[in-house]
TrEMBL record:
Keywords: ATP-binding, Ligase, Nucleotide-binding. It comes from Mesorhizobium plurifarium. This is ATP-grasp domain-containing protein. Pfam families: CPSase_L_D2, LAL_C2. Residues 118-310 form the ATP-grasp domain. One of its GO terms (molecular function) is ligase activity.
Length: 411
């Protein structure tokens, strides 16, 4: 009998190790297919079987999977979205080809085109920010003037918030659009950017599995940048009416976009007129959201997702008992990351679940002004929101690190 394998297309520094661990607990042999498996440090560290392949080429992936089927019983195929790689639609096509459970490639593709996504949501009556799509700098400036500053400018294609920037004035806009339109594209695409109104209201992230809402997080943003997250807290503090509003619009999004298979994440802002949807992402939420959901609700999103893609029986029974929150550690300058200190002190704080660094000493840092500026996180859990916040602050006060500024290198 052939050994059952789980194919992971590409990887992710946060969810990647969690998927590997969950697969092994379920008796599956994880295999990573990636353009450059070496970029995912956990693959080598855990001696995970990995194959280098062009993951943007569906035919190449099909050939590799046929080759693997000579040695393994492929139980399921899934992908790991990260800030730079988007594979969900490709994974859907692979699953269809091999007759395995998977998402609809058409729904995924129209969802990861942010302009198409907003069109579909608007047509379905879902409130979204005022938006326009620009194909050059002049169009972006014209649309920004029409919408009114400040605006958010981001690539139209993609499923995350990387390279999204809040532009408060024309100078910000000119610099960011020059950067975006300077990004090299593949032969199959040309750069398009979305220019949209900046909605100034509290932000919430909604985690959905299938058609069931699992958790709602309250998001605190950095004061220096209204797009970089400082904290995530589960569950969000909401009135019954607010919870119902958010739940209703989230399920409406699924219907409008043809989603409802597996995990979906919805980012929205709650205005006095109701929820305004900022984005819908048809994949597992980025770490540490799965860890927080498990701590707060008792649902292991990673394991349940792997069960789904392999056709195993799932259990999404929630047992909300705790408040779990993550504080992100964010670089405040460009330079070289010299050292970090406080891990032992933080780990000794009652209620701290995890402290994790995303980078190692001697790493060069070049801030991007978005989620990629996070260099680590600390997680706290307790029976109440107030207590969890106190624990998080105590932990954050115990952490220190040093970055040698870039100008010391003559830059």
């Amino acid at each position: 009998m052939l050994r059952k394998a789980l194919i992971l297309v590409e990887g992710d520094r946060g969810n990647g190790p969690l998927c590997i661990q969950a697969a092994e607990r379920l008796g599956l042999h994880p295999i990573t297919l990636a353009v450059d498996p070496a970029r995912y440090g956990y693959v080598a560290a855990r001696s995970i079987e990995a194959i280098g392949v062009d993951t943007a080429n569906i035919d190449a992936l099909i050939r590799e999977c046929y080759g693997l089927r000579r040695r393994y019983d492929i139980a399921g195929i899934t992908g790991l979205a990260n800030d730079e790689v988007l594979v969900s639609a490709t994974v859907g096509k692979l699953c269809r080809h091999f007759g395995l459970p998977g998402p609809s490639p058409v729904s995924i593709e129209q969802c990861t085109d942010k302009f198409t996504q907003r069109q579909l949501l608007s047509e379905a009556g879902v409130s979204v920010p005022a938006y326009q799509m620009a194909v050059n700098r002049m169009e972006a400036e014209s649309f920004a003037s029409e919408i009114g500053m400040p605006v958010v400018v981001k690539p139209a294609l993609g499923g995350g918030s990387a390279r999204a920037k809040l532009c408060r004035n024309l100078e910000d806009l000119t610099a960011h659009t020059a950067n975006l339109f300077g990004v090299k594209q593949t032969a199959r695409t040309s750069q398009r950017v979305l220019v949209e109104d900046f909605i100034q209201a509290p932000q919430y992230n909604v985690n959905v599995f299938g058609n069931e809402i699992i958790g709602i997080a309250m998001v605190e943003l950095c004061q220096s940048s209204s797009l970089i997250c400082r904290e995530w807290t589960y569950p969000a503090v909401l009135t019954d009416e607010e919870h119902e509003e958010i739940s209703d619009v989230s399920l409406h999004c699924l219907h409008a976009l043809g989603l409802g298979w597996g995990p979906t994440n919805i980012e929205l802002r709650l205005t006095k007129h109701g929820p305004v949807v900022i984005g819908v992402r048809p994949h597992l939420p980025a770490s540490p959201a799965p860890e927080l959901v498990q701590l707060a609700y008792g649902v292991d999103l990673i394991t349940e997702h792997i069960k789904l893609v392999t056709g195993a029986q799932r259990s999404l029974r929630r047992s909300p008992t705790e408040t779990a929150a993550a504080r992100f550690l964010i670089s405040d300058r460009d330079g070289t990351f010299d050292w970090m200190d406080g891990d032992t002190r933080v780990s000794a704080v009652p209620g701290v679940s995890e402290i994790k660094w995303y980078i190692e000493p001697k790493t060069r840092i070049a801030r991007k002004g978005d989620c990629r500026d996070c260099i680590g996180h600390v997680i706290a859990v307790s029976p109440s929101h107030a207590q969890t916040r106190i624990i998080l602050q105590r932990a954050a006060d115990s952490i220190d690190w040093s970055i040698t500024p870039s100008h010391n290198f003559g830059e």
